[in-house]
Structure formats: structure tokens, C-alpha cells
Amino acid sequence: MRKATLFAGLVAGFSTFAFNAAQAVEIEYWQYVFDTRVKAMDQLIAEFQKANPGITVKQVTFPYADYQTRVIAANMAGNAPDVIQLFYGWLDKFVAGGLLAPLPKDAFPHDKIEKDFFPIVSAMKRDGEYYGLPTAVRSLALFYNKKLFTEAGLDPSNPPKTLDEFVAAGQKIAKLDGSGNIVVAGSTVDMGGQDHQWWREVLIRQFGGEPYKDGDTKVNYNNEAGLKALNFYTSLQLEKKIGKAGFMDEGQAAFRGGKAGMTIDGTFRLGSFKSIKDFEWGVTELPANAQGVRSNYASYFANGISAKAKGEELEASKKFLAYITSPAAMEIWLKTVGELPALRSAALTDANLKDPIYAPFLKGLEYAHTTLFKDEQGQRQNAIDMVNRVLLEGQSTKDSLAQAAEAEQEMIDAAKP
Amino acid sequence: MAAIEQQGAASGRSGSGGGLSMRTKRLLWVWSFLAVPILFYTIIRFYPTFQAFYLSLTSWDLVRPPKLVWFANYIKLFKDPQFWKVFKNTFTYLIIGTPISLVLAFTIAFFLDRVRFMHNLIRALYFLPFLTTAAAMAWVWRWFYQPPPIGVINDVFGMLGIPQQPFIRSTDQALFSIMVTAIWAGLGFQIIIFMAGLRAIPGTFYEAARIDGLGEWAILRKITLPLLKPTTVFLVVFSSIGFLRIFDQVYNMTTNDPGGPLGSTKPLVLMIYQTAFNSYAMGYAAAQTVVLFTILLIVSLLQLWILREKK
């Protein structure tokens, strides 16, 4: 008797559970902790739930330093989320680990993706399948200090357009003290900042080369173009004395402190520079070369659907991903986080193109490249070391470049699955 | 331990009738408490340690299941020029850092012991850096070492007419610049321990020596230093392990180019960290950890050996 009641209770319990599940499905979304990103996502989730009453989305966040490890550990334990944010450079690892499912073609047709998004979205494609889509993208631009421009007799409304103008402006702004120490830098020289991206994807191309081949698996800069690019970069410190690596500790600190006329940095720096009170600053496109060739480096965090999501959860995840990569979501993201929309239609609006701050970054997106890093930190370190060997140890640029190319190729080969 | 258990069992048998004797109950009670830290250590410490030995024989990148590669990681490690550079750096920290910090700490403790004027304040000032977070301290020093116009040390050099130094931006000076901060940070602790050691030497020895007409130098050599040996051995080992495990100072003073410039300041622990959590080469990182473990083990065994020698 007692057993039967218990059984009946259990059945009833299960059936109510099943009934509820049919009514409401909960999916989990993971991203790393960054105040404005979390707030923007809260807002997006609220909007999404309003439009889709049957679906609830639970946002889970982790500190950036732990994020990848957490995701991978959760996947091994079978607790992966349904929709997940990932840096484009992690894709190979996440796909190899069976973490991500290819985006279903019915909800995300390829021709539509390729038509609507900026071309850099191709970094999310492997073997003919897309594994994620970004909400927002980041690119580089040249920040300049209008006060220092005026003091140096330069026109603050007419920032440098070419590399030659960039060097000339830097030389006018740079000030040295009696013993040759830099007091004010014309431009920052900081490979540890964004300069390694500038050298890799912009300068090498502007000097007629291409940094990598075969889907970024073959190093292709140990040649004349690479050498010219490295010579140009190291000459900023060694010959033209525009700046010095380590000046004010970091490039961005020097610019913030009003001690550097120009610095190359990304959209993600806008938040920090917006609090500058002592001087007015402007943004312009990265300088072109003499032939007018421009390039840029763009990167992004994409959102993918986990391989774990099945059935109703998969359907809900598809809807959620479609919403967070829609123009409406991108607008909220731009307002809250300050990152540029990944869809052409949402990004290249009249209002955005007239915005003196967003416009240079947006223009950069049209011709930006995205390096498919195999070991992001290692490859960055390799570029830093290449320049340090020249600046600190007096190695010739030719030897240092050859050494860097060899080391990076080894790194890329070692990372192959 | 076994003897106690046997005793407990024996008295248990002789106890009156059924149930457990007082002694057995107490033993059970004690062991149930002791089991908590033992279990904790087994699960949190020993299991991962053995796991690390196993992982060092695999190629594990977190994502895919570990694949046994036997000694490939070790062969790669011993062929890696970066490892030898890091190895050399680590031992430079150890071999130069430890003697300097001990001589300094002893000298300061020796004289501070005799100072009565503001003794406590001076001692507290020396101890203060030991209480400060290594990360915060490293950042302050990082700014001290900056080139002009913001670095304090270079500012002073400028006023004195000494040429500007690159410090942490130089492959020759960076390691020593960081070592100085590590020595300074550990100094307070070593001074306190040395002073305790000095106070523990009975005053009658000194009185007898003075009556016999021994000079200050002879007293130091014949009485103070020999009687201070246990303290010195402890500090040598403690400071050696500290320098072998150096990480915080290096990482925080070189965050943009960790262990740089050009790897000139990189210690073994930082290399392990980067291999594991930047490159996600867990198997390779585990092999490096095993090497570090072996080095630390040898240092600890040396300590035991030296201590036994003394008895």
C-alpha cells in the first residue's frame, strides 16, 4: 500500500516535471566577467525572455583568467553550457575538444552570414561549417593627443594619414632632455600592447608581404617585406627617436598620462581613455602606406552553441543565438560595452559613421585581417622577443626576424592537433 | 603509532565484558579527528602529486584525453634552450640571493640586537615589507625602476649625475633588480629569526669569553656563529626554497612580457605556469613540475643531512 502511494507520487512528480519542461526550457549562457559585458547581457536576456516567454536564460560568468579552463573542465564533466562565448582564437581547441556544434544551416544560412557580417567572421569557419557568430568586434586605430599636436605646431583636426606623416608628426612631438632621455614621446613603442598586431597584420602587408600562408599555418614574413616592416618599426625608437619601449611602463599609460602624442590601440581602450580629463584626444584610421594601402587587425568574441544542447534546448539556443547576433542586440551592446556591431547593417549606420570616435574603427573593419593564432600568447611573446633582441641586444633585424620566423613556425607546428 | 594501537587493543581485551574500553574509544575518537587532515592531504596533496607524475608522461592539452608518450616531455625539456635559461635564472636567484640576504639579515640583526634606542620601531620597519602583499610591493618597485621621467631611482641618479639605468628593461640588470626586491621583502622575517637565535645564546658564554680576554671578532667567530648554526641552517633552507619558488615578484614586475625582457628574469615556476595555463600543454608542464619537485626534494634532503651532522 505504502509502496503504491509512493510510486503514484513519483509518477505524478515526474509528469509535472515533464509538463513544466514542455512549458519552459532553461538554457545556460557562459561568458567571462567584465562589468559592462555582464550588464549588457543581462539586458539582452531580459529582452529575449520578454519576446520568448517559454525560455529562460541563465547567465553564468567566470573570471577571464579561469574561463577557458572552466569551460573545458565543465565539458569533460558533462556540465557544459548551451550557448557559450569564446575568443575566435580558441576555436580550434574548442572544436577539437568536441565542445561546439556547427551552427545549424536552417537557422544560420552561410550565404546570409557571409553577406551580412564583416569578412573577419570567416575566422569562425572550419571545414565548411561555422561554429559561432560575434555580437561585437574590435579593431585598431590611431589615438592622438590634440593638446600635444597643437603644442608641436600640428593641426589637431588633421591627424596623420600616411606612415610618413605619422613619423613626421611623431618627430615634431617627441621631446628629449639634455641627456637624451625621452620626456614626451611622439608615439608609443610597445610591442606588448597592440603593436605586435600592427606589425603582423598591418605593417608587413603595407610593405608588400603577407604574414602567413595556408590558413595561417605557414610563417611567411622572413623575407624582404617582413624585414622592411621590422626595420620601420625598430627605427621608430633607434633612429627617429619618436618613442622608447618601456617609456612610462606601458604605451597606454604614457598616452593616458599625456606624455605620448600618439598610440595605436583598440576599441576596448575607449572606456579607459574616456575618463581622461587633462586633454582632448582624437581617433583616426591607422596610417596608410605611400600607395594608400591600409590594413587593420580585428578580433572578437563569438557565441557558439555547445554540442551538448539537444532537442528543446537546442531550439531555444538557436533562438537565443539568433537574437544576440541581431541588429537590435548589437545596438544595446554598442551602447553598454562600446564594442562595434559585427553586422554591416548595424555597424555602418549614418549615425555611427558620423561619430568621430567610432568611424575610424568601423572603416578599419572593412579591410581588417584576423590572425588565426595557434598559440596566441606564445606568438605574441615571440614578436615581443624579436623586437627586444634588436632594441636591447643590438641583434641585426635580419637575424632577429629569421630567428622569430623559425621559432613561430615551430610553435604553430607543435600546436597542431 | 603501532605500539599505541596495540596497547589500546590489549587494554581493550582486558577491559570488563562487552563494548569498547575507554582507551579504545579514545583512540577511535582521536583517529576520527586525525582522519580529517589525513584524508584532506591525501586527496588534495598526494593524489594530485602522483597524478602529476603520471601526466608528465602524457601529452595532455586539457581538451583531449591524455595520451601516453613516456619520456618525450623530459627529452623535449632537456633539449629546450629556454628551459636551460630558466634553470640558470632560477639558480642565479638561489645562489646569489640566499647568501646576500642571509649576510644582510645577520648583520642587521647583530647590530639591531645591541641598539636600544627605538629598537622596536626599527625592528618593525624592517619587518613591515614581510607583511605586505608581494604583488603590491612588486608594482611599487616596478614604478621605482622606471626610466625617466617617472622612475624615482633614475630621478635620484639624475640629480647625482649618475647615468640613467634601464633596470627591468635590460637583459643584464633585470634579474638583479628583481632579486633586490625579493631580498628586501624577506629580510624582515630573517632578521626576526636571527634575533631570536641571538637572544637564545646564554649571556654567561659571553661573560666568560670577556673575562678570558677574547676580542669582539673572536667572540663572533667562536661563540655567536657556531651557536647560531641551527638558526642559520633553518634560514638557509627556508630562503633557498623561497628563491627556488620565486614567482610573484617576477610576474608582477614584468606582466607585459612575463619573465622578460627576453626571458632574462624568468624562473622555473613562471615557465611552468605559462606552459600550463597559456599554452595548455599540461603534460609538458607536469614534466617541468616534476623537475622542480626533484630540485626541492634534493634541497630538503640536504637540509636533513646537515641537521643530522650537527647532532
Please explain how this structure is put together.
- The complex is a heterodimer of chains A (417) and B (311).
- Chain A is of the alpha+beta class.
- Chain A folds into two domains: 25-138 and 299-369, D-Maltodextrin-Binding Protein, domain 2 (3-Layer(aba) Sandwich), CATH 3.40.190; 140-297 and 374-414, Periplasmic binding protein-like II (D-Maltodextrin-Binding Protein, domain 2), CATH 3.40.190.10.
- Chain A has helices spanning 2-23, 35-51, 64-76, 91-96, 110-116, 146-151, 163-173, 191-206, 224-238, 251-256, 270-273, 311-324, 327-337, 344-347, 350-354, 358-366, 376-393, 397-414, and strands spanning 25-32, 55-62, 83-87, 100-101, 125-126, 129-130, 133-138, 140-145, 175-176, 182-187, 212-213, 218-219, 260-266, 281-284, 296-297, 299-306, 340-341, 368-369.
- Chain B is mostly helical and 311 residues long.
- Chain B has a single domain (81-310), classed as Orthogonal Bundle (MetI-like fold), CATH 1.10.3720.10.
- Chain B has 14 helices and two strands.
- In chain B, a hairpin with a 7-residue loop joins strand 1 (58-59) and strand 2.
- Chain B is globular and about 70 Å long.
